[in-house]
Design brief:
alpha/beta; Rossmann fold; three-stranded antiparallel sheet; 9 helices; 10 strands; 33% helix; globular
């Protein structure tokens, strides 16, 4: 485990983009599990800039979306597929034949999830996965509960998560979907390089809880990443404020 503290969100975004670009240079056809949401927008902006400057080539990159809202197809502006096109795909030289995402409109969602999980296995597993932390400690849409599932599955979204995401669905009559598709904890734990991105003072209590306790708690899914063999927390100074200083010093080495 490693903690990298950046000055602010802009600095964090540049650092994260540089880490991703370097791994792509080392393995041009690596498998990237793409994160959506506010946290990675700055990183995608930096990656697009690096592409425009000729510093990184995405032509052989393979991607899997980390999660998706059930009922939101690729053309729906609320979908994560749409998000990735807007912030990343449409601005770089990615081969769309190498892009995979859950079919959130499938008639048999369980069968679709099973195939999606197998596609990840057949691709050799995830080389990079990046996530933020939800306000209830979820990663992707692995919500707090009595247990955590290993592979891609359908999940009923926690009401806290739906409330957290409500502002993005103000123009949608049905509001925030009640169900989502998410990659599972086994897929996350097997990712060769795992990054957690956190910015802002509102994330500080979550990081404090994570680093003050060594307990693996399914009610706090991000805690499972303490067992990940190669996880790095890339956070800004505001998010790092409540992490115990001795812990911060130890994992920043």
């Amino acid at each position: 485990m490693k903690i990298t503290v950046c000055k602010d969100y802009a600095h964090l975004s540049k650092v994260m983009a540089q880490k991703v670009a370097e791994l792509i240079r080392q393995k041009p056809n690596l498998v990237f599990c793409l994160p959506a949401g506010n946290s990675p927008i700055g990183m995608f902006k930096e990656l697009v800039k690096m592409y425009e400057e000729g510093k990184v080539d995405f032509s052989r990159l393979r991607t899997f979306d980390m999660d998706e809202y059930v009922g939101c197809g690729p053309e729906d502006p609320h979908s994560f597929v749409y998000f990735f096109h807007h912030h990343f795909f449409d601005h770089v030289n990615i081969n769309m034949d190498n892009v995979r995402y859950p079919d959130a409109l499938a008639d048999d969602l369980d069968a679709m999830c099973e195939k999606y999980a197998q596609d990840i296995v057949d691709a050799g597993g995830l080389d990079i996965a990046i996530t933020g932390i939800g306000d209830d400690g979820h990663i992707a849409f692995n919500e707090p509960g009595e247990y955590l599932l290993p592979r891609t599955h359908v999940v009923k979204m926690d009401e806290m998560t739906r409330k957290q995401n409500a502002s993005a669905f103000e123009d949608r009559k049905e509001g925030v979907p009640r169900y989502a598709i998410t990659t599972g904890m086994e897929e996350h734990m097997k990712a060769k390089h795992y990054f957690v991105v956190c910015s802002g003072a509102h994330k500080a209590p979550l990081l404090k809880r994570l680093f003050e306790s060594e307990k693996l708690d399914p009610q706090f899914p991000v805690s499972w990443l303490r067992m990940h063999p190669n996880v790095e927390f890339v956070i800004d100074e505001e998010a790092a404020k409540e992490i115990p200083k001795d812990v911060l010093a130890y994992f920043s080495k």
